[in-house]
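wait is this the right file?? whatever heres the structure
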């Protein structure tokens, strides 16, 4: 390909197609007609000697070559936009933007009301939304610009185009109904450790996004040669806390989530009967947003909220 004859406007079309997976939606996104996008795609296919996008039902699915080019082209476009933009000083009060987060209900309950309360007085035109997603989706959601940030436990190694920073440590506590008869008979006071035999004997509720009936608690028990009986798996932490408050179930929950639930539910909180490592909660975002003033400012607000919850 002769790069001197390559129309750089075609890269905008390529980027829109990667994001929208539709000729029509891509055109709407960048202000071109459907025929103009189709023509640009034909030229891209000629220049790059690849189909790039293949129709499947109502979507245009990128080929492996298109996927390999996507991040490089998106970063190049972002660099060009930053280079030519005359943004002036960043002023939160002028920010008119929707920020989309992903994460469990742990974060929608604990973080989002506090985040809105902190941001609204200084940036009244900012809007928030949160989508629930399994951790395995972080990469695709960030890559495709579906979300701006993900609030999640430490998910281990990720591609170097994903940036992250620790937000807070979350220890486990054991939640039970205040009138749990077996705990009352054992004369265990709130804040004390449950006896191991009682912890293992009582039925457990578990937060499980995918229906799995075991988790980190079971792995920790296995190390000391013990097991528990998980009787109920639910997809939300608050649903688990609600079920515990209304039954003989107990649950090991992140401390901050359990204390938030205990403020409105008849729950008693206890220490686990064995050592459990704290969960590290992290903030994830795409590296292309590292230097974006609005994004940097919003990340700072999230981290400040996290500081208040420790």
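ok assuming it is, sequence goes like this
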């Amino acid at each position: 390909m002769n790069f001197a004859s390559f129309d750089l406007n075609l890269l905008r079309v390529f980027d829109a197609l990667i994001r929208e997976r539709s000729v029509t939606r891509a055109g709407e996104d960048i202000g071109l007609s459907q025929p103009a996008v189709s023509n640009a795609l034909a030229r891209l296919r000629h220049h790059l000697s690849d189909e790039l996008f293949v129709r499947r039902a109502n979507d245009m699915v990128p080929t492996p070559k298109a996927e390999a080019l996507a991040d490089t082209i998106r970063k190049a476009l972002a660099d060009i936009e930053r280079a030519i933009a005359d943004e002036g000083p960043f002023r939160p009060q002028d920010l008119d933007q929707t920020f989309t987060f992903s994460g469990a209900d742990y974060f929608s309950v604990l973080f989002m009301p506090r985040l809105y309360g902190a941001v609204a007085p200084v940036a009244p035109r900012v809007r928030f939304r949160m989508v629930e997603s399994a951790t395995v989706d972080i990469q695709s959601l960030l890559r495709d610009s579906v979300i701006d940030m993900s609030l999640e436990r430490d998910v281990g190694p990720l591609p170097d185009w994903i940036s992250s920073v620790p937000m807070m440590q979350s220890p486990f506590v054991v939640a039970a109904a205040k009138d749990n008869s077996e705990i009352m008979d054992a004369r265990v006071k709130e804040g004390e450790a449950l006896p191991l035999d009682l912890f293992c004997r009582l039925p457990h509720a578990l937060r499980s996004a995918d229906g799995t009936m075991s988790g980190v608690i079971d792995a920790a028990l296995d190390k000391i040669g013990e097991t528990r009986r998980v009787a109920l798996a639910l997809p939300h932490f608050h649903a688990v806390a609600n079920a515990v408050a209304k039954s003989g179930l107990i649950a090991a929950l992140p401390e901050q989530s359990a204390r938030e639930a205990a403020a409105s539910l008849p729950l008693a909180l206890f220490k686990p009967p064995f050592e459990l490592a704290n969960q590290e909660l992290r903030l994830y975002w795409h590296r292309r947003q590292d230097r974006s003033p609005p994004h940097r400012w919003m990340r700072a607000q999230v981290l400040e909220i996290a500081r208040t919850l420790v």
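The chain has 13 helices and twelve strands. so i think its the right one actually
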